[in-house]
Amino acid sequence: MSLPAESLRGKTFVVTGANQGIGFQAAAAFAQAGADLVIVCRSREKAEPAREALQATQGVGSVRLVLADVSLKADCARACAEILATTPRIDVLLNNAGVLATSYRKTSEGHEHTYATNHLGYFGMGLGLLPRIRENGGGRIVNVSSMAHIQARVDWDDLELEKGFTPWRAYGNSKLFNILFTRELAKRTEGMGVTVNCLHPGVVATGFAKTDGGFTAFFAKLAAPFMTKPEDGAKTSIFLSTSPSVASVTGKYFANSKEKTPRRLARSDDAAAKLWKASEAATGLTV
C-alpha cells in the first residue's frame, strides 16, 4: 500500500518488530511518505540492515533504532524512556512485534514468553508512550491482533498457561488479549485525543513462527507459499495508522481495512477489565 509522497512529512511513527515482515513493510510505507521513524527491535544484527534500508528510502525523514526485547518490562520501560527523551512528538505507535513460541518457557522476569511478548509488550509500549502520543492530539495506537483470537480458551486463574499450554492456544489467547487491551485502552483514553484500534493482518508469511524449531516451525515453513505476502499483510496496519477516514474511530477491530466484529469474548467489558487488572499487576503501569 503506497502513500502520497510527503504526506507524512513532520510526523513520527514508532514501529515495534520493524526488522522484518509486516512491520518492515509498514515502516517502509511510512518512510516513502516522508515520516520520521523509530523502530524498536530486539537484535541489532537483524535490525541494522532494516534501518539502513529504510534510511535509504527516497524522501524519508530520520530513522532511529531502539534496541529492546518487548517481552521484558524493564526493556519496555528503558525503550520508552529513551524514545520520550529523544522524540518531541509521536503521532502513531504501531505495536507489531510478536512471537509464536513453540514450547512453554518463561522470560527472565517470570512470564510465559508468548503472553509477555504479544500482550505485555503491547501494554508496556502503549502505556509508556501514551503521554507523548496524546500531546499533539490526533495520536493513534494500532495493535496487530489476528483472527486466531477465535481459538482462544482463557482460564482467568491461569492466564499464562502454566497448565494446558499449547503453542496455538497461547498465541490465540494473546491475540484475544490484543483486542481486549485495545477496547479497554480506548475507553480509558476517551477525550484525550487518542485513538486505539487493532487488526487482523491476514495469514502472513513472516519469520515469527519459524525460529523456535519444532512442529509449529515446520508447519509454518510448509504453509508459507500459501500465505499472504508481508506487503499485503501490512495494508490494514498502514490504513489504521494513516487514513483520515478512521481519525475519530477508536476501540475497534479491523480486517482488510474494514471494521469487523470479533468473537463474543473479545467484546466482553468484564473480560477487558479482568485483563487490564492483571496487566497492571504485571507491569506496574496504568493510565
Structural overview:
41% of the residues lie in helices and 14% in strands. By secondary structure, the chain is of the alpha/beta class. The protein has an 8-stranded mixed beta sheet with strand order 3-2-1-4-5-6-7-8, with helices on both faces. Helix 5 (167-188) links the parallel strand 5 and strand 6 (194-200). Helix 5 (167-188) packs across helix 9. It is globular and about 50 Å long. It starts with 11 loop residues before the first strand and ends with a helix.
Topology overview:
Blueprint: E1 12-16, H1 21-32, E2 36-41, H2 44-55, E3 63-67, H3 73-86, E4 92-95, H4 113-133, E5 139-144, H5 167-188, E6 194-200, H6 214-223, H7 230-233, H8 235-242, E7 253-255, E8 258-260, H9 269-283
Give a concise summary:
By secondary structure, this protein is an alpha/beta fold. It has 9 helices and 8 strands.
Descriptive keywords:
eight-stranded mixed β-sheet; 287 residues; 14% strand
Number of strands: 8
- Which runs of at least 5 residues are low in confidence (pLDDT < 50)? 214-220, 222-227
Q: What structural category characterises the helix and strand content?
A: alpha/beta
Q: Write the element-wise H/E pattern from the N-terminal end onward.
A: EHEHEHEHEHEHHHEEH
Report the biggest beta sheet as strand number plus sense, adding barrel if it closes: 8 strands, mixed
Compute the average pLDDT: 93
How far the N terminus sits from the C terminus, by CA atoms, comes to 33 Å
**How much β-strand is present in the residues?**
5-15%
CA radius of gyration is: 17 Å
In DSSP terms (H or I, runs of 4 or more residues), the helix count works out at 9
Strand adjacency order, main sheet: 3-2-1-4-5-6-7-8
Q: Globular, elongated, flat, extended or rod-shaped: what is the shape?
A: globular
